[in-house]
Specification:
Elastase, domain 1, alpha+beta
């Protein structure tokens, strides 16, 4: 007996109305009560939880697309909005969990709240990390006859869900002063929406028709939130995702949304190159000779040999996207818990894939070549670990104080600058056994199982700071900066990798560092100098009282992207300001004002 509930969902948004299907929600894997499962709850209320549209009892309803849209009114049907946002989020999370080899757990321990109608008359959507929830807006457009609902965009839902997933992996990332960490949050959202679209055969069919098999051509795959862009700017606006024209790392801008294109475009290029490598030469030739006229195109692929080429294209797209997505998401297990730079992330991604698929190097070798070409591969960053793993053997169930004592004992080996007064916070030791189905990623090496132990540790250093107080006046005081690292040990407790925040260079020779300081101290000073240089205008404005409580300078420029948030105990800490979708799309689209293609 098929114990599933079909739920209608759009595969793009209402601007491409023929792309839709039913997501099969499995009642064998999860429950469905009202409008909630163990992972998500749809709350049809505004941002302040004031009820809006009536909630439904889904276990008693037919939620299929055919029924929900029987009156051809899904665009303005709030019940379909509820189903669509739940189905897209659940499908996306299912796929992420299959790549990770384990279930996700949200950082607050309960289901993630989805509000399809949270914001009225605003072209926006956002993830709220303080009260974990995805909140979607709607607006009227001069270019569209119907309202534009962000909860109907597959791209927007999966992008915002990407923020929630990364925040649950690494909640301290929102306090990181590293600009790359903020950019990674934006990139993961874009990449998740891009790759999840490739789980749907109708989307791949559309990509195939538009690109003739060349995935480096602009298609619906390389654009994001098309209807949102049309609604804001009209039909000729190339509202592009940053997959095709990202910056090289050495040219990376200092605004996090724009900077996110560094990682987004690198990962997409890895995917595209892997597709080229996996498609046989004879298939490539047939694909490249496809006619441009739509009618001729259909006739061309009615040919049996040509149809086999399309089937091969579909198979390769699926396997390449799954391998690259798996590389990208699994690397998040291994990065430091407090922040990461793109060069460290590139190295960690390569190493993570090598441990899981030691006999299948081609995808990660492609990744390394692309990272090197984009100035993302920095060999000098130290990831080797001193063999201290046996000191942690068997401490999975140890008291927190005992584990902390061992971390203190090995602070030098863990690159913690104790001499600067670093206060170690409670570390965590996790043992994970991950089983990855290689065939799921299109590989021939079968199921891979790997057991690893991970030590996650964080520490605080207090520095003199100046921030905006509750009365809006500048306040001089101490600010807590949080740093840390991740030590990976194999199943026998042999230490195999140590990734730290900040990046660790054992032979640092920068002239303005203090002679005699340890590399860990030098690494910390380097990170502080980067932050100070990047935000010097804002920091000076705070000191002089020329900045508003929202982070804007009197000039309206150079907004400080952090709040200084008081803690229940201890010094205040940095907290990155909440990202809004409208801000993200505006900044990444600025990169493409001179884009040479018409979409």
């Amino acid at each position: 007996m098929d114990n599933t509930v079909p739920m209608g969902m759009l595969l793009q948004d209402p601007s491409i109305e023929d792309l839709h299907q039913n997501y099969q929600f499995s009642l064998d894997k999860d429950f469905l009560i009202g409008m909630a499962s163990s992972k998500f709850v749809v709350r049809d209320s505004d941002e302040h939880d004031n009820p809006l549209f009536a909630e439904q009892y889904w276990e008693e309803m037919d939620l299929s697309y055919e029924v929900m849209n029987k009156n051809k009114d899904y665009i303005d049907n709030p019940q379909f909005h509820q189903v669509n946002v739940f189905a897209v989020a659940t499908h996306t999370l299912d796929f992420v969990e299959s790549l990770l080899g384990r279930e996700m757990k949200w950082k607050h321990g309960g289901p993630l709240v989805l509000r399809p109608h949270a914001i009225r008359n605003q072209a926006n959507a956002y993830y709220n990390p303080q009260a974990p929830s995805l909140n979607f807006g709607s607006f009227h457009s001069d270019f569209r006859r119907t309202p534009i609902w962000t909860c109907l965009s597959h791209d927007i839902i999966s992008h915002e869900l990407g923020h929630a997933i990364l925040d649950s992996f690494r909640p301290f990332f929102n306090s990181s002063e590293e600009i790359d960490t903020g950019a990674l949050h934006e990139s993961i959202g874009d990449l998740l929406s891009l790759f999840c679209a490739l789980e749907h055969r109708p989307v791949i069919e559309r990509v195939f028709r538009d690109s003739r098999g060349d995935v480096m051509q602009p298609t619906i795959l390389t654009s994001m939130a098309e209807e949102f862009g049309l609604g804001m700017h009209g039909i000729n606006f190339p509202f592009l995702r940053s997959a095709l024209l990202g910056y090289s790392y050495d040219e990376a801008p200092e605004e996090v949304h724009d900077r996110s294109t560094v990682w987004t475009s690198a990962i997409y290029e890895i995917f595209a190159e892997l597709v080229y490598e996996l498609i046989p030469a004879d298939t490539q030739e047939i694909l490249s000779n496809a006619p441009e006229d739509a009618n001729d195109f259909d006739d061309y692929y009615n040919n049996e040999e040509h149809k086999k080429c399309y089937d091969k294209f579909f198979e390769v797209i699926k396997s390449a996207s799954r391998r690259v997505k798996g590389m990208m998401l699994r690397s998040l297990h291994d990065v430091p818990p407090t922040g990461v730079t793109f060069p460290t992330l590139a190295r960690v991604l390569y190493n993570s894939d090598a441990r899981l698929f030691p006999d299948d190097p081609m995808p990660r070798d492609i990744a390394r070549d692309i990272f090197e070409g984009r100035m993302l591969w920095v060999e000098e960053i130290m990831l080797d670990a001193t063999d201290i793993g046996t000191a942690f053997a068997g401490m999975d169930e140890a008291r927190p104080s005992d584990l902390m004592r061992v971390v203190y004992d090995y602070a030098y080996e863990l690159r913690i600058p104790i001499e600067m007064g670093a206060q170690i916070m409670y570390p965590k030791l996790r043992t994970s056994t991950r089983t990855i189905d290689g065939s799921f990623e299109g590989r021939s090496n079968g199921t891979q199982t790997i057991t690893e132990h991970r030590l996650y540790y964080t520490y605080e250093i207090l520095i003199d700071g100046c921030y905006i107080g509750e009365n809006g006046e500048p306040v001089m005081g101490m600010v807590a900066i949080t740093k840390g690292g991740t030590l990976i040990m194999d199943e026998n407790w042999n230490a195999i990798q140590l990734a730290t925040d900040p990046d660790y260079y054992p032979d640092d020779e920068e002239g303005d560092l203090q002679a005699g300081d340890s590399p860990a101290v030098n690494a910390y000073h380097r990170a502080v100098r980067r932050f100070t240089k990047l935000h010097h205008r804002s920091l000076r404005a705070i000191r002089d009282g020329h900045i508003h409580s929202n982070g804007e300078l009197d000039s309206g420029q150079h907004a400080f992207p952090f709040n200084i948030v008081p803690q229940a105990s201890g010094a205040p800490r940095l907290m990155r300001r909440q990202c809004n979708l409208s801000e993200h799309l505006k900044n990444i689209s600025d990169r493409h004002k001179e884009f040479p293609f018409d979409i």
